[in-house]
Amino acid sequence: MLARTILVVSSSGPEDESYRGYCLEAVAACYDVVLITPAAPTWEQEFITDFEIADPDDVQALAAAGQALAERHELAGVMTWTEWYLVQTASLARQLGLPTNSPEVMEAARNKATARTLFARHGVPSAVSITARSLLEAALAAETIGYPIVLKPTDRAGSVGVIRVECAQELPRAFEFTAAGAHDGDGRVKVLVEEFLDGPEVSVECVTHRGHTTAVAVTRKTLGDPPFFEEVAHSVDGADPLLDQVAPVAAAAIKALGITDGVQHVEMRLVSGRPRLIEVNARLGGDMIGHLVHLATGVDLTRAAADIACGQAPGLTVMRPAAAAIRLLYPSISGTLTHCHLDGAFAAQAPWLERFSLQRTVGDSVVLPPDGDRFSARAGFLITTGPTAQLAQARAEEALGHLTLAVEPQLSAPAT
């Protein structure tokens, strides 16, 4: 009989319940789950059979926790959906003799500079990119590439520290913004200076098993106001005709990185109608994208990731085409949250409002970029469904009209 216990390495906190709770629920529906997490489980308890508390960034602590669980359970696989833990989880799986991509491959996927080099080597259409360790190096790189440019940390996620720069006069302040989140382990700054890819942004949600990649769905993205690249909405249409066009580029990028197994979230832009790579995330997409794909296609990407981690072939049959959309909820200004609620009468009469979730409460301070970041300032999200992405998005706009989200501005300190 095959072992049916899977080890999940996960972060902890209220955002994990809001944005990754569906992942743990999906895995627990078909496997016994044991968990390694930095803090004692709370909401996770109903989905797990055992746990160990350890900081996944502490290699020795993670190895000891994994060994302790392996001694108590017959493990079939190890997985994570947390960007920061991809390399550590691959190392743990290797130590336990379980299926995995190599830690070196996961490191290459996480490091945007290394990934750009591999894309270029394998002929994958991608942005021109130069690493800079100082403002002077960034200025020289920008002159080589030509403005506008994009600055980003080499190994962050969620668009943290990513900013568009229109001209040389804007570079010093932009470089300071990006460098704030771009220190590596030895404290040195590493910033990527990249060509700005002008065109609509999408992601391709892929499943790779034994070196063969299947593109399951395309996610269409809506970005916030420039110069930042925070995503404020996504939609997935199970019948999106763009899938056939972008699938080969996504598969080529995954192959260039050496990824042979798992679920990938491949970001790209359509420049003059042609796909150009932004990056490959060797994990489930964030912002509930895996859930949108499930609503729109019937394909459960979390279940696929778990099956692959346990050495099993995933089920990828599209059961239906439909559509789903998510709106991420932000205040218009920084300050203290005073009101945040959705009209209950409206919600009760909107069966297409699949869910509404808040991650901030009245009294919380929310700080938008450049002083803060969009994820921390996010109040929550709502998800809508429909037969087409256009209708699902229109329904999201309708729901927004019944949402009250108010902030009291922060007062500037008096001059002294």
Quick overview:
With 416 residues, the chain is α+β, with helices and mostly antiparallel strands. It has helices at residues 14-28, 59-72, 86-95, 103-110, 112-121, 135-145, 171-179, 243-257, 289-297, 301-309, 344-348, 374-377, 389-400, and strands spanning 5-9, 32-37, 50-53, 75-79, 129-132, 149-153, 163-165, 191-195, 201-209, 212-223, 231-237, 262-271, 274-281, 323-329, 335-342, 353-358, 365-366, 380-386, 403-409. The strands form four sheets. An eight-stranded antiparallel β-sheet has the order 13-12-9-10-11-14-18-16. Strands 3-2-1-4 form a four-stranded parallel β-sheet, with helices on both faces. Strands 5-8-6-7 form a four-stranded antiparallel β-sheet, with helices on both faces.
Notes on the structure:
The protein is of the alpha+beta class. Among the domains are: 96 residues, Rossmann fold (3-Layer(aba) Sandwich); 68 residues, ATP-grasp fold, A domain (Dna Ligase, domain 1, 2-Layer Sandwich); 95 residues, D-amino Acid Aminotransferase, Chain A, domain 1. It has 13 helices and 19 strands. The strands form four sheets. An eight-stranded antiparallel beta sheet has the order 13-12-9-10-11-14-18-16. Strands 3-2-1-4 form a four-stranded parallel beta sheet, with helices on both faces. Strands 5-8-6-7 form a four-stranded antiparallel beta sheet, sandwiched between helices. Helix 3 packs antiparallel against helix 4. The longest helix has 15 residues. It is globular and about 60 Å long. The model has no long low-confidence stretch (mean pLDDT 93).
